[in-house]
Design a protein that fits this description.
two-stranded antiparallel ribbon; mainly alpha; globular; 9 helices
């Protein structure tokens, strides 16, 4: 019995902790920490978009609007000038232009977004409509009640969020760099064949 306990103590900490993710992603304590962060990021992202979509209420359900659609609406709400698809994609670090265009079509159909005056088919710019601004007031009130008020009670939560935001920005830069590197490698391999 004591021998088994001694062996358990000699193993690295990451080997004694039951991994929450597949072991092939966690060969070291550092890999475990990064993978745990990634898992938390995946769960937080999905929860955020689900929450953002549901906060739009009945209007969202009637028009099958998602959290992604709401994020685009809120981007337009926060802008002093109408925005084009490329500007919306850059703000959110997205490259799925077709999905952004689809979200805009859904928001227009729901009466929450409109093409700005002077837009052409080639250079469309969008802005929140009066209905979109009204719905956003309701969204902000629900967000205040369900997220802001309860989280304000957590001690040092603002500091924790600022640290988490810095960590997320840093890891985003690693992902973006890795994506560029892999994209370049894929092009080089294609040319070699």
């Amino acid at each position: 019995m004591k021998q088994a306990e001694g062996r358990a103590k000699r193993r690295p900490v990451h080997a004694r902790i039951a991994p929450r993710v597949p072991a092939h992603l966690c060969a070291s304590p550092h890999e475990q920490a990064v993978t745990d962060f990634e898992q938390a990021l995946i769960c937080a992202g999905e929860a955020f978009y689900r929450f953002a979509g549901l906060l739009l209420g009945d209007q969202a359900r009637r028009h099958k609007l998602s959290g992604h659609d709401n994020v685009i609406l809120q981007q337009l709400m926060s802008s002093a000038v109408p925005r084009g698809v490329i500007e919306l994609s850059r703000f959110a670090n997205r490259d799925d232009i077709a999905n952004i265009q689809y979200s805009l079509r859904k928001l227009i159909k729901a009466g929450l977004v409109e093409k700005a005056a002077g837009s052409t088919n080639r250079e469309s710019r969008y802005q929140a409509s009066a209905e979109g601004r009204k719905l956003t007031e309701d969204f902000v009130a629900a967000r205040q009640e369900l997220l802001m008020a309860p989280s304000a009670e957590i001690r040092d939560f603002d500091l924790q969020l600022r640290k988490a935001a810095r960590a997320m920005s840093l890891i985003t830069s690693f992902y973006d760099h890795g994506t560029r590197m892999m994209s370049g490698r894929a092009r080089m391999l294609t040319r070699v064949k």
